[in-house]
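retry 2 of 3: previous attempt timed out while embedding guanosine-5'-monophosphate. Reduced batch size to 1 and resubmitted. Inputs unchanged:
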Amino acid sequence: SNLLFQYARKLQQALQRPYYINGHSLIVSCTFGITVYPSEAKTLEDLYRRSETALYAGKSIGTGTIQYLTHEMDTQFTRKIQLERSLFTALEDQSLYLAYQPIIELQSQAVKGFEALLRWNHTALGNIPPDEFIPLAEEASLITPINNWVIIEACEQLAKWQQTIDPELTMAINISPHQFQSDSFIRTLQHIVTERLVSPSSVTLEMTENIAILQTQRTVERMHLIKSLGFRLSIDDFGTGYSSLQYLSAFPIDELKIDKVFIDGLAKNDHALLDSIIQLGRNLELNLVAEGVETEHALTYLKTTDCQYMQGFIFSEPLSVQDVEKRFLTP
Ligand code: G
Ligand code: MN
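retry 2 succeeded.
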């Protein structure tokens, strides 16, 4: 294999020189991905696919890299291909589904509503975290249909639960910065309003602070458009993203979801930032939801503050539709 490497180097040196074409000097760069036949690949297709895997891994290090296929690269790539292929049918076969985590009113402990969370239970590979499958869905151009499905599905579910559980229930839906900018997203919201799937005032769209990095004027206009359709807006994972606070008064938002890190701080009696965020939220007349509440200690403390709502394992994990109905549908 050392010989192979030397051979690749020589080829690279021969190819990587300036070419003079029409008075222009063009530099060619040359990156190698190497797979050995027949020990690492049995067929031409395999040889090609695996070399390409090594090539892209090499390119991510830098052009001009000579990269052998490693075992790790190979298993990672095979998993990726397998996941990507199943993603195309994941909506139909219902392996992609929504879980619903209750949002609780702190003082009364009553269920205010739910947050819809996208989950994927792959038939062969088990639970695949969103961090892994969302980028794949983006790559495979499946993210738009999936995003739209999430919104419609969550709204239809809310409409059912408003009839069977409580007419005041709300639903929170996560929106990515890219999705927020898309026209398809706005059309989906308009569809909900015109078809009267559910009252938009009971639907909260959650976006992270990263939304503020995008061109502000356009972002603000878009938020006003969403508000004019009647939906509510919330900043998710508040306190961990974009550091400027100035956007808070520029954005027409209704709610802050306080990131779990500030709740976790309570274990060390570290509540200065949490108190300040709650104060800030109240001064701006925003709803406040504490996220990731796991301990009795944190819950007890939160009850002494002006924060109105909480979400977390201490009350409930995200639940399936069946489990929500088992727990909250009283006959
Ligand atoms: O980014 P966002 O806040 O929407 O993500 C919520 C995620 O946090 C979900 O995946 C949910 O399952 C998880 N989660 C919810 N409550 C808790 C909790 O109390 N502890 C931990 N560790 N995770 C939680
Ligand atoms: Mn969220």
